[in-house]
Specification:
Blueprint lengths: L5 H13 L3 H9 L1 H5 L3 H15 L2 H14 L3 H14 L4 H13 L3 H11 L5 H20 L3 E3 L5 E2 L15 E3 L3
């Protein structure tokens, strides 16, 4: 097998999770850092699952902070804010983190997450407004392009290991912001 293949590391991580080998899954997913760090965003759901099964939210938080340092993107920002909110007694740390990041890199996903964290502080009428705004953001995010081919510019919502347009392998990458 190709030790530099992100696809293989993601698949092996999934297999380890299915076999309840959570530490092994995290070890396998960590290899993506050296293979192609831009794909770390693809490992987040499996990292979340492994840490949840291990009952270790602090480990999840540390991993996401390390990934954020290596490859900041809107999806990692949202995952990190969620982990911060879950590990803290209140959402203030996550809210402050998001506000700081949104000042520099405004994203729809970041705003949606911020609204979710602010919801408990709002009164009934503003909560209704927040729900409406979140609905609009959800609709926009469903239609957004998350991947782009570095060779031909093809963009889409799903990861293709072979670009459907130019037929090159491993040229479709997650869009960082």
């Amino acid at each position: 097998y190709d030790r530099y293949s992100v696809r293989v590391s993601l698949l092996l991580g999934r297999i380890d999770l299915l076999q309840d080998l959570h530490e092994e899954a995290l070890t396998e997913l960590k290899r993506i850092e050296q293979q192609d760090a831009v794909f770390l965003v693809e490992a987040i759901p499996m990292i979340d699952e492994a840490c949840q099964k291990l009952g270790d939210n602090q480990k999840r938080l540390r991993i996401l902070q390390r990934i954020w340092g290596l490859q900041p993107s809107s999806r990692i920002m949202v995952a990190l804010a969620g982990a911060m909110a879950e590990s803290a007694e209140n959402n203030n740390e996550a809210i402050e983190f998001l506000l700081g990041q949104l000042d520099e890199h405004p994203t729809l996903g970041g705003v949606r997450t911020l609204l979710t964290l602010l919801m408990p502080f709002a009164e009934a009428e503003p909560q209704r407004w927040i729900q409406i705004i979140k609905g609009v953001l959800d609709s926009l995010l469903e239609k957004s392009q998350s991947y782009c081919c570095t060779q031909c510019g093809f963009s889409g919502r799903h990861l293709h290991w072979q670009c459907p347009s130019c037929k090159n392998w491993s040229t479709v990458k997650p869009v960082p912001w």
